[in-house]
């Protein structure tokens, strides 16, 4: 014990001497890299130098050995008694000292493991975006932003595109690139056996400051020193929960500001370093290898991190509204066979202000902003965008229609803003109904120039709006108040971009980021509509007119289909194999049709009659497939039919019946449907498996975690690649047995399997409110546009 205590004392003295030199000669000087490795050398030398002086083997002279032996022989009884007494347990000063030493070391080890676990929980519960060799974790955890090895934990409340956000990001990137987490982990491990040494705790604090100095210097190099200084002064200290990380707002602000504004070069700075050089020569040589910078083919910078993750991080505009789920990625424009003229009409103008927002903004001003941005953001040379007005001027609807028709347009899109009905109490207006979201209008079928194509255009724009996370209230038809849509001689739609009477949405509509999302959705919807039309794919989803069936053999007469989302499956030649409707799909028969000849109906793979379909509840429909391709029809049936309507219901979970439902000594296996009467007369209410947070959360999870470039990297040609996987969800929502059902190749299926396996727990299926084990299917679509 005395030897160990003496060794520990030497460790303290050695570190005291070296830290004393640091404090007097090196502290608060600008050679940060030198100071960093000097402190690492202090850690190593404080433990190793004392070992050179300690003699572990003690030699006794022969005379001492004889005396010891004779003493034992002469007083044998007392020696035995001493041994017997020592066998009983009792606390000694030496034992207490060892106990305290080991207990403190154990507690520090537990804290270290706890810090690792908390970081693991953040990695598991938050989305991750990889940029080169760095991983960006988007979170709202306290203490963020901070870095840990190659992981940067970013607080989504911080605007990553602002000047301060870029500086903070560069600051954390420097921590990652300089491998500061290695230093922190090494010092933390050193403190477990060396907790008794106060100079080690001082060394830990100084190392953290040096890390901040290095990162601040790099951040200032890319930004404004005054802005960073002001940011440090006004920052609020978050709660620290991760001892191994580099939180941005951690170190004392005063020293960091002094270092930022210190431009002096001490006269004896080199002498200060050379004095200690003989002692550190070996250590510095060793560390030179680990300080060698790795230069990637594409070096990591704030610019390429922003380009990769801006889609996943909130921004905080001046309006105070937080924008989420905004996809700013510019897709390559689709190739079209010719140039199309697109007329964009910003609604109202001049003395006609249109709707007024709760914050004073007018519809005429916002629609003009959107129209100008749409023309500006168009990168497709085959889209000739023309505005009906480019200034704040008034044109009535007749003038707009005449001007548009004179230009022989291919498509017409009118942009407007919505307003909700006012709420009145005692004859006074006290507010507005809180309606929100975008809507798209088409002219009534009886008055529209081309109702089907107008609806298809609206459907494509609506689909893209939904994909980008915009609240979309659907497609509607009107016969009054939309003269301009009725008078235009081409497919025409009217887009109500949002409600100005909804305070948050009105503020959102005034932000450039949200406006860009809206116009990109319109542009991509227009491109997709034109590309689909060129391939000769007539979707006719809104309504299939029986009067046109003779001219259009692919049409299925007498049925009206509606859905929130559609998927178009094409073969290699671009021919439509089937159309799949999802998102609350339903259908209805026209009254004048009591039967449908030449159409085969399949419900969950079984042939059903027209009367059977009348009893199908729309709430129980998972998806509808409309199959008109003859090859696809022959794969399903040998009957001579012109079309197949394949309906898949929401499959309930299968389970064993309880002991009171046993027949002939064997348990009954059955499937409980929605509100279905079972064998014991009870109503079974079943809810299917779902992703936590619903479809919106699932879409966000895909956007942040799915590697969408997999098929491109594997050489896949342009097209759509649909992967279907199935997996078991147990009662706790845990995923197991992930299997591939449909694999289009090019590495897409393994990527989806990986994504599902690493994702969070799902909400299990329930029967009468009780969770059950069930197998669930999910599809993920990869789309590659033509370059």
From TrEMBL:
Residues in MurNAc-LAA domain copies: 401-527
Any matching Pfam family: TonB_C
InterPro entries per UniProt: MurNAc-LAA_cat, N-acetylmuramoyl_amidase_3, Peptidase_M56, Plug_dom_sf, TonB_C
Signal peptide interval: none
CDD domains per record: MurNAc-LAA
Listed GO biological process terms: peptidoglycan catabolic process; transmembrane transport
Catalysed conversion reaction: Hydrolyzes the link between N-acetylmuramoyl residues and L-amino acid residues in certain cell-wall glycopeptides
An example Gene Ontology CC term for this record: outer membrane-bounded periplasmic space
EC number(s) recorded for this UniProt protein: 3.5.1.28
Family annotation (SMART domains): Ami_3
A Gene Ontology molecular function term of the record: N-acetylmuramoyl-L-alanine amidase activity
Membrane-spanning parts: 6-25, 37-57, 96-117, 270-289
Keywords: Hydrolase, Membrane, Transmembrane, Transmembrane helix
Protein name in the entry: N-acetylmuramoyl-L-alanine amidase
Annotated source species: Sediminibacterium goheungense
